[in-house]
Amino acid sequence: MESGQAGWVQGADLTFEFGSRFVVEFRKSATSAPVLSAVEKVRAMAARFDGIVPLVAVPYMGEAGRKICHERGVGWFDLSGNAFIVAPGLQVVIEGKRDAFVSSGRPTNLFAPRSSRIVRMLLANPLEQFSQARISELTGLDRGFVSRLLSRLVAEELVSRQKDRTVRVNDRGLLLDAWRDSYNFDRHHCIRGSLPARSGEALLHQVASSLTGEGLEYAATGLGAAWLMTGFAAFRTVTIFVREEIPSEFLERIGFISESRGANLWLVVPDDDGVFQWTRPKDGVICAHPAQVFVDLKGHHERSADAAAMLRRQILDWNKDDR
Prior knowledge:
CATH class of the largest domain: Alpha Beta
Helix content: 25-40%
Strand content: 15-25%
Number of domains: 3
CATH architecture of the largest domain: 2-Layer Sandwich
Strand order of the largest sheet: 1-2-3-4-5-6
Structural class: alpha+beta
Radius of gyration: 23 Å
Number of strands: 15
């Protein structure tokens, strides 16, 4: 930059001029959370001045990071030789270069079934700070596992350690987005079928009442749970987590017909019982935590994207208050 012009990018990792002026934020990792935090930071810096082009740089930009940058209108380049940079009079698109920084070993999946217990717990208690021992107690995970996961979460800038060694979430919305980005609803065992009912709401209450009467643990999720929490959008498909596969005698008794096509009831045996932690009752129905419902909607159809957006605005907007 010209002499005396560096002040406008205080805190930036790099600024340069090549026809346009660019401000760059670097990250060591290109997983969702670091890329999201870099994008938000560089956009905020660029917004302070006219004509500034924001960029993110990482060792190797994967598909998730590229999508995040594209959706938010931020260019990027990586140290492996790939780039997507658009500015007035300039377009740089380089693809196909291999990751030059591949590490040996298999990294811990921060959002694997058991790992997600920690994420769910942090999102369910957004204003609290937790010791490692307390996290282990609340999630049912051993301390060694918790320690490894927390170290990774700190490295990915999703949580930070305090002076007293407790941890807190840096950005709850960022953590929620990172979880959703990695989430795959299809990993659960889902039994799809049909049950006669006047509406999705009637079906939801009908099935919840039957499961309660049978003494079977459950937690509603998906469109039905989102509707109970926000009142948004009529729905047809009811999705319910069950602790274990429902006995066939019970299914016959309630008139359940197993079929995939035209199914209006999904009974889901989760890949981890953590989905039953932090449940809450709503209008007589036990529902999974709103954060769990939000990520589950990724695997649904109908108006699931709109339902997720409404759930986020009404329930998961931690800028308003602690819900």
